[in-house]
Amino acid sequence: MTPADLSRTVLHAVRRAVDEDALRAPVPARVRVERTRPGGSGDYACAVALQLAGPAALPAREVAALLRDRVVGTPGIGRVEITGPGFLNFTLDAAADGHARADRVREVRETGLRYGRVTTEAGRLHRLHHPREVRAAVLAQSVARLLRTQGGQVIVGCAGEPDPAWEELRVRVGPRHGAEGSSEIRPVPAGATAGTLVRRLGCDAALWGLQRPAAHDRAPLAGDLLVQGESNPLFLVRYAHARARALVREGERLGLGPAYEEDVDAPALHTALADHPGVLAAAARHHAPDRVARHLETVADAFFDFHGTTPPLPVGDEKPSAAHRSRLALAEAAGKVLAGGLFMLGIHAPPHV
Predict the structure, then answer these.
(1) What is the pLDDT of residue 13?
(2) DSSP 215-264
(3) Residue 170: which region, alpha, beta or left (left: phi > 0; alpha: psi -120 to 50)?
(4) 3-state secondary structure of 74
(5) Which of 33, 133, 298, 328 sits most deeply, having the most CB atoms within 10 A of its CB?
(6) Is 289 within 8 Å of 344 (Cβ atoms)?
(7) Residues 6+ apart with CB under 8 A from 99
(8) CATH H-level superfamily of 230-344
(9) Alpha helices in the chain (DSSP H)
(10) CATH of segment(s) 3-92
């Protein structure tokens, strides 16, 4: 169970308590859980009971007890304690957590680019429209892809005649439609045309530069997007994907196929993979492809940390083992998440960088 999973579990407990009329308080938008401080109890702590005590007109420890009763027994949680004035302290079930990580790695490897897709909005039609401006057109296309990951149907229209040069950035605008009943995509303009950006940066770097900043921020579109080094996040994301692919190829050459047989100690990478479906959902809901770009950077950083501390391939006189097969499976899963995220942004994920 990741911190995000635990946060959602506690929030669900709050909603249940409110729905059952056991707790009369507004349901918060999110619940924060933190690593327990040195000397504390359990793996994670949460102060939501103290937050709800005032509105509920109940002692915080009583609120904590209501929530504890509704999270005890949740798969992945071993023990729940109430400490101090009303803190909830959680000790995770290591065995259940390991099974969940194994299932997730297998799911990513099996579903590939479709990992994280759901049918929550099946049948819902979204109409997006945007001005005749390159950044708006690019963001609209990515928002459309994100909405489709949630099961929605999407029509994208342009307020004016589409720029033929948008085709170079893989932007294809469908039938024009009015603004009524539709969502407008209107970011800070790029300040350049599609043709200029493609000639100066190439398609993929231009797409990253247009989408990595939040829509309300200016998009810096300078030559540093082409730097082949760690100062360029796009390079790191694509290099992490290419490196993951290369590890699997080299493993196959050695007769070592990926298979998650033993739990791999790579908490940051496991958490990043687990967060991917939630990132897609939030990015779709908020029409914010920049969230996907930032998440890809997180996945890439976690992958390189894992790669540096726990080599997936045998080193020196090491003999291939189940541990190596499991690390290769995790590396392959990371590569698939990176490829899927880049696809959401319309960017190629080449096997070599």
Answers:
(1) 92
(2) TTS----SGGGG--STT-HHHHHHHHHHHHHHHHHHHHHTT------S--
(3) left
(4) coil
(5) 328
(6) yes
(7) none
(8) Isoleucyl-tRNA Synthetase; Domain 1 (1.10.730.10)
(9) 3-19, 48-56, 60-71, 94-111, 134-149, 194-201, 203-211, 233-253, 267-285, 289-309, 322-344
(10) 3.30.1360.70
From residue 183, give the alpha-carbon distance in Å to each of 130, 140, 177, 216, 224.
Answer: 8, 10, 11, 16, 33
Q: Which of 73, 55, 94 is nearest to 13 (CA)?
A: 73
**Rounded distance, CA 98 to CA 109, Å?**
17
Domain ranges of the chain: 3-92, 125-222, 230-344
Distance in angstroms (rounded) separating the CA atoms of residues 281 and 285: 6
CA angle 22, 26, 27 (to 5 degrees): 85
Q: Does the pLDDT at position 333 exceed 80? A: yes
* pLDDT digits 0-9 by tens, 142-192: 999 999 999 999 999 998 889 999 999 989 887 665 555 689 999 999 999
Q: Return the C-alpha torsion angle 184, 190, 196, 199, nearest 10.
A: -100
Residue 123 — left, alpha, or beta (φ > 0 → left; ψ -120 to 50 → alpha)? left
Cβ atoms 269, 303 nearer than 8 A: yes
